[in-house]
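Saturday, quiet lab. Running sequence design on the structure tokens for the scaffold JK sent over.
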């Protein structure tokens, strides 16, 4: 469904920022969002961060324990579909990070309307609120799945070929972004690989496999188990966001490719080895849209100086030892950032 067109407005003047006047993070109590919140509070050591999160099953307020200690976090439990609330929260010149989304592919087949409403319509509502408030910059988190299954790496100009309701809803959200850009908003889009790390919900591949191994059960392989995924450590994604905030081009889109690509079967073997467990497999029925591979061309991010550093084995160790994100910048460990606003 096409998004409602936004009328153009005059662009704001270019200026320098030494500390963001305000930051809003949607979905900030989730896996990726909470790591980003920790980092933002360190990068901008005098700035308040407002988190808007519906606190659904995949979010956890405990993810924000470190952030709350900063004294600069405001957590608002609400849906991004709440137009009036967003208009009250977003202020002029605010830096907005949009992560709120439904993201589990199998769930998207059970309730595609929910995914469309939250991921596409929610993005439109947020962009309208940003425009109404006069905020100038949004950084939107999309996914590599918009490109569909590929045997060769997709660059940022590659056509979309989503195969699941989840991927389709994220592709449609980018349609809303195109309208917003045409109306004068600066919206940066990130399309990351499969992000992994501490705080990830147990429905996702690596936490689920770790849980199976801990309980002595066989690894469940959907189909043949040879589907390949590129894995991006959350610490690497956070570093990529910092580079984009500092050096990114206005209205640009960036693939953020991970360090390593493995089949699902290979991931199981890595986890079994790390946990010193027998590697037993149980084949179960394949799920819909279980694409063979997602591959990204990361040259555009490399030009900003980004290189992924952290591999799957290291992330597995972090999760196994209960590390909930000590590798991320936390409040009290300032690494002040200067950025330029478009």
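Result came back. Writing it out in full:
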């Amino acid at each position: 469904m096409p998004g409602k067109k936004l009328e153009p407005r005059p662009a704001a003047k270019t200026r320098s920022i030494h500390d963001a006047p305000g930051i809003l993070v949607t979905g900030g109590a989730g896996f990726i969002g909470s790591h980003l919140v920790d980092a933002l509070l360190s990068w901008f050591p005098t700035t308040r961060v407002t988190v808007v999160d519906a606190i659904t099953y995949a979010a956890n307020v405990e993810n924000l324990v470190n952030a709350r200690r900063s004294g600069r976090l405001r957590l608002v439990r609400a849906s991004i579909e709440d137009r009036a609330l967003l208009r009250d929260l977003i202020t002029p010149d605010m830096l907005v990070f949009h992560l709120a989304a439904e993201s589990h592919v199998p769930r998207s087949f059970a309730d595609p309307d929910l995914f469309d409403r939250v991921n596409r319509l929610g993005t439109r509502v947020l962009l309208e609120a940003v425009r109404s408030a006069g905020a100038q910059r949004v950084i939107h988190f999309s996914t590599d799945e918009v490109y569909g299954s590929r045997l060769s790496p997709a660059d940022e100009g590659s056509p979309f070929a989503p195969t699941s309701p989840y991927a389709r809803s994220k592709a449609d959200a980018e349609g809303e972004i195109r309208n917003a850009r045409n109306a004068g908003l600066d919206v940066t889009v990130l399309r990351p690989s499969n992000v992994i790390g501490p705080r990830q919900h147990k429905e996702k591949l690596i936490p689920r496999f770790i849980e199976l191994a801990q309980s002595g059960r066989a690894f469940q392989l959907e189909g043949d188990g040879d589907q390949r995924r590129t894995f991006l450590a959350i610490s690497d994604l956070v570093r990529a966001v910092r580079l984009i905030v500092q050096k990114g081009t206005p209205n640009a889109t960036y693939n953020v490719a991970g360090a390593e690509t493995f089949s699902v079967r290979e991931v199981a073997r890595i986890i079994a080895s790390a946990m010193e467990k027998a590697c037993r497999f149980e084949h179960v029925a394949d799920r819909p849209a279980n694409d063979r591979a997602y591959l990204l061309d990361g040259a555009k991010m490399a030009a900003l100086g980004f290189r992924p550093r952290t591999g799957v084995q290291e992330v597995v160790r972090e999760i196994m030892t209960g590390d909930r994100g000590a590798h991320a910048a936390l409040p009290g460990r300032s690494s002040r950032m200067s950025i330029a606003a478009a």
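Notes for JK: The longest helix spans residues 112-133. The first strand starts at residue 15 and ends at 17. Ask whether to fix the surface positions before the next round.
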